[in-house]
Specification:
mainly alpha, 4 helices, about 35% helix
């Protein structure tokens, strides 16, 4: 993979916070950086998990790992470690990114006039 989502300095800041270090028990996760790149690709593209490019691995394995890390609080630790970084290029939201559901605009036909309640005649 030629292009990385994370720069080397960003990777060094978070690599110690991730599960699968050499000091952890069990199998050491050698592909943590590739996994982080996959998650950042998902966040940047807004695609469905099934559309994850094969270079990142099988989409369901990536999703399952993402979900496990979320439950363990790994993403929260990473967020707190990076929250002082003024580089917010991935945090930008505008109306071209946020989409509303088709029913969020209101009922068909717009506002209807309501009859006054009994005893509340218009003056």
């Amino acid at each position: 993979m030629a292009r990385r989502e994370l720069r080397d300095d960003q990777w060094e800041r978070i690599s110690g916070l991730l599960p699968g270090k050499a000091t952890d028990r069990g199998v050491t996760a050698k592909d943590n950086r590739l996994f982080i790149d996959a998650v950042l690709w998902m966040a940047r593209s807004g695609a469905h998990w099934r559309e994850l490019p094969e270079v990142f691995g099988h989409w369901n394995s990536v999703f399952a790992r993402y979900n496990r890390w979320a439950k363990k609080g790994v993403w929260e630790r990473v967020f707190h470690a990076l929250s002082g970084d003024p580089d917010f290029e991935y945090v930008l939201l505008d109306s071209t990114i946020v989409r509303a559901h088709q029913h969020s605009a209101g009922a068909k036909g717009g506002m209807r006039r309501r009859k006054p309640l009994a005893g509340h005649e218009a003056v």
